[in-house]
């Protein structure tokens, strides 16, 4: 059913959700995320 769905889009959305949740929970320093987004 999901065979034609772009999995990269799923990874992008889920990855962003995980990052936001991690920042909200203060499990990951904001600077680390900003550096990872820049690279």
Topology:
Layout: H1 7-24, H2 30-38
Description of the structure:
This protein has 39 residues and is mainly alpha-helical. It is built from two helices and no strands. The chain has helices at 7-24, 30-38. The model has no long low-confidence stretch (mean pLDDT 76). It comes from Chthoniobacter flavus Ellin428. This is Plasmid stabilization system.
Structure at a glance:
The chain has helices at residues 7-24, 30-38.
Key phrases:
2 helices; 39 residues; Plasmid stabilization system; mainly alpha; 69% helix
Task: List low-pLDDT spans.
Answer: none
- How many E strands? 0
> Which structural class is indicated by helix and strand composition?
mainly alpha
Helical stretch count?
A: 2
Rounded Rg = 13 Å
N-to-C span = 34 Å
Strand content: under 5%
Reading the helices and strands in chain order gives: HH
């Amino acid at each position: 059913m999901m065979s034609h769905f772009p999995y990269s889009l799923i990874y992008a959305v889920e990855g962003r959700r995980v990052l936001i949740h991690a920042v909200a929970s203060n499990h990951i320093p904001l600077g680390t995320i900003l550096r990872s987004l820049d690279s």
